[in-house]
Amino acid sequence: MASRSRASGSSTTGSPTLLTAWSITNLWIIAALILFVAIAVIGFAYFTPLVRNQIRLADAGETSSSEFERLSRRNAVIGPLLGVIVLVILGLMVFKPNF
Questions:
Q1: For 97, which DSSP code?
Q2: What angle do CA 37, 41, 45 make, to 5 degrees?
Q3: Rg (CA), the chain
Q4: How far apart are CA 96 and CA 26, in angstroms?
């Protein structure tokens, strides 16, 4: 009988418990949400226009121009920064630190 209650997702086990296991006010959840918003803002405000301009220059055959080089250097900074932020969010969600 115990295996049935687990399979049915009763209130003592299963997904309903997962929904109430952590409060939205836990600091690691707040930090992850703030970092997620930061990724969205950086991505939409800076990274997307940067890549769009790089693609425009590449399509025009201007890959050796100073503008393309400047955009490439910026891309080399912002791209990995976004990746690191994603890894920090992943670490927060996996390890759920208590700070």
A1: -
A2: 175
A3: 22
A4: 9
- Counting every residue, how long is the chain? 99
Nearest to 40 by CA among 75, 80, 85: 85
Sequence-ordered alpha helix ranges (H) in 1-99: 2-8, 15-20, 27-42, 48-59, 66-95
Write the single-letter amino acid at 16. P
**How many of the other CB atoms lie within 10 Å of CB of 96?**
13
Residue 17, CA distances (Å) to 13, 51, 88 in order: 6, 43, 26
Dist CA 50 CA 72 (whole Å): 9
Q: pLDDT per residue over 50-98, tens digit each?
A: 999 999 999 999 999 999 999 999 999 999 999 999 999 999 999 999 8
What is the pTM (predicted TM-score) of this model?
A: 0.74
